[in-house]
Amino acid sequence: MDEQDRKRLKTQNSELTWKLKKVIRESSGENVISLLPNRLDSSLHNIVSSISKHQVNIYDSAHFGENLDLFMAFRSAPEEEFLCGAWVKADIDGSDALSDTILAIGSKSGKIHLLSLAYSQEIEVIDGNEKGSSIIGLAGSSLHAVTFASCGTDGNVKIWKRKKDISVLIGIISLSSVIVSFAGDHSILLAGKDNTLRSFDISSILTDFESVDLPVHFREDDGQIIVRRSNNMSRLCHFQVLHDHQVICLFTDGVVQLIDILNGEQQVRWEISNFSKSDPCRFGICPEGKYFVVSNSNGIVQLYDIPTGKKVDKFQNERMRKACGNTVFGNSKSTLIVSTDCILWFFVKS
């Protein structure tokens, strides 16, 4: 791509113009592993966390572009290494820590750290896996309060329910998985190491877990295969549940698919050119659920209309010509957060 072509990439065939408002270097100086906007509570869409190897930062982007506040930072112990995270829905009927919004952080040691926004401190440490295994995926339920799942290198996915001041293990799914997410009010989706996406009905422990012997065990055969990727050169690297019956899947070859969870049918397909297979970018979905954003290996940010499948915008900042690790929306479709190494780039639609 020559210089003239690069200049043309500043918003083509679109009404959206993105302006770089702020560049922030993470205080840890470490590469950002993931950016996690809070999508579980509509009143907290302005909250976003960044996770690096030894530190978690939580930002308030309510006045995006004018006032970006870092109001909480959590540093790991020297021997601890963070790998993943997820927001956990608050219990609005609770009277103590259950009424708090929680950020769960998974570590290489197999521990899960629960961080409280209300108290600005760690409130629990869970031994999530057997010694010698790590937590590589976490997900919080959007419908069931203080309910979350952890994905471990020990080949098990564990489902937790926080009661009072302790988290109780209520379910175990025996499937070697790398990504986990809740779907609707009774299902959980697992991306397996065998390049499949499976759906498990776990309603028995979500609705009436106190009446059964815990933890409830689920086998691989209990899951329904939604996606099976036959191409061994490409793997499922990221997915997000869009609505109760839709999921967006991103593969390392740059293929993105919108899939109906109920029947496994592909509804929309996209292909991201020059996608970084070795270091794939995590995509983001706007709070309204209409658009998703992703970046390729050249740092070109691309926005797509999900219902129509059309590309609505693409742009590249002259200072950001490299593969992006994360691209997410802020508190609306008019704000974007992009990470490259230890740098956060904040864009606002003007």
Automatic annotation (TrEMBL):
The root-end lineage is:
Eukaryota, Rhodophyta, Bangiophyceae, Galdieriales, Galdieriaceae
Q: Which organism is it from?
A: Galdieria partita
Q: Which UniProt keywords apply?
A: Membrane, Repeat, Transcription, Transcription regulation, Transmembrane, Transmembrane helix, WD repeat
Kindly give the PANTHER family that the UniProt entry links to this protein: POLYCOMB PROTEIN
Transmembrane parts of this sequence: 166-184
Q: Which InterPro entries does the annotation name?
A: PcG_WD-repeat (IPR051243), WD40/YVTN_repeat-like_dom_sf (IPR015943), WD40_repeat_dom_sf (IPR036322)
Name it: Uncharacterized protein
Query: Which Gene3D superfamilies does the record associate with it?
Result: YVTN repeat-like/Quinoprotein amine dehydrogenase
